[in-house]
Amino acid sequence: MAGKIRRRETRSFYAFISPWLIGFIVLTLYPILSSLYYSFTDYDVIHEPVWVGFGNFNELFQDEQFWNSISVTLKYTFVSVPLTLTLSLLLAILINQKVPLQGFFRTAIYFPSMISGVAMSLLFFWVFNPQAGLFNYVLSWFGVEPIAWLLDARYAMTALIIMSFWGMGTGMLIFLAGLQGVPASLLEAAKLDGAGRWRTFWAVTFPMISPVFLFQFIVGIIESFQVFTQAYTVTQGGPSYSTWFYVYNIYINAFKNFRYGYASAMAWLLLIAVMIVTYLIMKTSNKYVYYEGGKN
What we know:
There is one protein chain. This protein is mainly α and 296 residues long. It has a single domain (63-295), classed as MetI-like (MetI-like fold, Orthogonal Bundle), CATH 1.10.3720. Helices cover 69% and strands 3% of the residues. The protein has 13 helices and four strands. Strand 1 and strand 2 (50-51) form a beta hairpin. Helix 8 packs across helix 10.
């Protein structure tokens, strides 16, 4: 009797998860495995895939645009991620203080991050307009001449980095949760020992929120490696390929040049790069990440 009940429960279990399981196999697992196969082929959708082995990868390493897209993406990562983390943490510290209308300010800072990437990009397309843009209008108060932000290779990347700050409300919210999890007893002990605010932050607060910082850091790097919407919607990879991000390069090769095998090879290199970077960060995190039980 017990065996029949167990078998019936097992069948019910698989019946309930079958929609997810089918969706995962058809929409996730199959495309992943297919892209791995196509990365070793010359494939344009119209014709049958032709096996070329490591031909796509060899061509990639000789492609100047491939290396340029890596350079552009790394520049964005090295500037955007630290700045976004710092500003998110500063906002979280400010919002964590007991001030009037605290709930309103938290909502106001977080709300912009709920806007989709395309809508945000179109908004900033107007903000950075060289003739009637809000950004140039504010700069004119300080005597700065109008700047063609999205049309000048010297400033296009800076404009996209500024755009990335629009969504830092999510990071602020996560940091805020971490700050509110810091034990009050530790803060009081530091105060009794005569530690100032700066010393308390670095000796108590930051070590306690370091796991949160590690999470934000890894997620920020992964997201910066996958920048696409801004480059596609606002700059189209230009001017002069100054915003030709890696994922944008994948898109161009796949859906404009119809080189799906070549694009698949690029996608798998991106996956490998993300895995390596994440592993190295986790491996070195012992030096600065602390948990309640001590150093990790």
